[in-house]
Give the backbone structure.
Amino acid sequence: MNRALLAHTWRSQRLKLVVVCVGLAIWSALLPIVYGTFGQTFRSIIDSGLIPKQLMQFGGGDIFSLSGALALGAIHPISLILNSIFAAGFATSAVAGERQRGTLEVLLARPLSRQTVYVTLLVAVLGFVGIAVAASIVGAVIGAAIAGVSGELVPARLPFFWLNAVLLFGAIGAVGLAASVTFDRLTPAIGLTVGFTVVSYFLEVLGSLWPDAQGLQRYSVFHYFDAKQVLEGNVAAGNLAILAAVGVAAIAWALAVFPRRDLAAPS
Amino acid sequence: MSAIATAGLTKVYGRSRLPIRPPGHGASIVVRALEDLSIEVTDGEIFGFLGPNGAGKSTAIRLLLGFLHPTSGSATVLGLDAVRDSVEIRRRIGYLPGGIALYDSLTGERLLDYLVALTGRPPSRRAELCERLELPPETLRRLVRDYSRGMRQKIGIVQALQHDPELAILDEPTEGLDPLMQRAFYGILEDLRSAGRTIFFSSHVLSEVERVCDRVAIVRRGRLVAVEDVEALLARRKRNVEMRLTGPAPDLTGVAGVSGLIVTDGRLTCQLAGDMQEFLAAIAGAPIADLTIEPAHLEEAFLELYRDAEEIPA
C-alpha cells in the first residue's frame, strides 16, 4: 500500500464522502421515526387485508419493528444509490477513469507496482464503504432516539450489521475495481459493475415480492445481507462467507489481470 | 555502462497475455508495433529517438517503463531488467509522457508535491526548473485546470526532472512550448548533460534533435532505420546549391557529389555532397552573377535515410 496515493485519494473524495455520509445518516434516521410514528397504523392496514403482505416486506424489510424498518432502509434504492457512489462509482473510475483521462501514465511512472496501486485503491474503497455504512448506523441510532424506540435496538448487534453491510458493498466495490483494472475505458467498467449490482438487486427484490421467484434470490449478493435477522441477533456466518468469497474472487481476478495487462498509449 | 540497452525488442499487439480475454479485449488483428529494436544509449548522452507518428517511439518507451510487456527480446534500463525491475527503474528515472494529462483539480504546487511524494525523493531541482521555465509561485498556486497547454507541458517537464533523475525519458517534450521556452528547455538539457545525466528524447521535430542530441536513432514502421551521431549525419548531408548566371551554365555532369542538377533560364540548382574541390574547379570561370551554397537541414538527411529505408520490407 502507498500512503501518498491513499492520502491523495482520501483528499480528492472527502467532500463527496461527507455528502454521502450525511445523506445516509438522514435516510437511516428517518426509518425509525416512520416506524415509531406510523408502525401501528400500517400494521392495522395490513391486517385488514387491503394491501398484499408482500408489498410491505420489500427486500426483507418492513415497518412493523425497528429491525424491520432498519432493514427496509438498508435495502431501499435510496440507500443502495448512496452506498454505490463509492462501492460502484469510485471503484470503477479509480483505474479505468484515470486511464481514460491519461493520468494513470503519470501515476505509474512512479516507483509503484500495479499491485501496490490496486491494493491502495482497494483499501480506499473499503474505507469509504466502511465509513458510509457507519454513518447510516449512526443515523439509525439517532433516529431511534428521536422516535423513542432506542430500547428496541441492541447495540452489541450493530457491529455485525456493519460487518455484513461492509461485506456486501465491499464485494460490489471489489467487482467494480476488478472491472476498472480490466478495461481501458470507463464505460464498459461502469456497465459491468452497474449491471452486476442492478441485476443482483432486481433478483433480490423480485424474490421478496413474488414467492415464485424466491429461488432466484440466491444468485443475488443482496440476499446475503439479511439486515433484519442480523439486528434480531441471528447472524448467518454463511452469508458473511459468501459475500467475502465474492469479494475475494474479484480481488484475485484483479491481481491476476492488472499486472499482466499491456497499458498502451491512451488514444 | 549503458543507460538503456535493448536487444531484439519486439512488441506485437493482438496476442493476449491474460489467462482469459475479458470482454472488449477481442483484439484479433495482429499489429507489429515494434520489431527487433536493438539500441544502446550510453551514460551521459542526449539520445534522440526520431520517427513519424505511429513509428513505434511510444511503444518502445512504454516497454522500457514496464507499461507494456515485450513479445520477444529484452531491455535493460540503468542496468536493470525492464520487466523484472520495473519499479526500481521508475525510482531512478524521470518520465514525461507525450501529451501529458494532469490532475485538473490540484494546484500546480500540490500536483508536484504529490508526484514527488510518490517518487519518494526530494525535489532538489524543482526551484531551479520553475525559475528557468517561468513558473512563478503564484502560477503554481493556481489550479491545473486553468493552465494553458504550454503551462501544462512546463509542469510536465518539472515533474519529470524535479527529483534529479539519473535518466530522463521525455516523449515529445517541447510540444506546446513557445520558442522562448523551447530555448530554456534546451538549456536545461545541456545542464543535465553537463551534470552527467542521460536523456532519452523522443521527437519528430528534427531541428531540436539537431540542436541538442549527441546521437539519434530513427525508427519507421516499428523498425530501426539507423543509429547515427548527429554530427556524422549532418556531415553526410547534401548542400543545396543555387547560382544565377549571366551566360552559359558550367558543365557539372559527372562532377563528383553533384546530383539533382536543374538548369533553367539563367539559373542552376543542384545538390552537392562530400568534398567540394571538384565542384569548385568545375564552376571556375563560369559567368556566375550570384552563388548560394547552404547546408541542408537534418530534415533532408533524415528524409534521405527514410527513402533508403523504403527498400526495407515493412
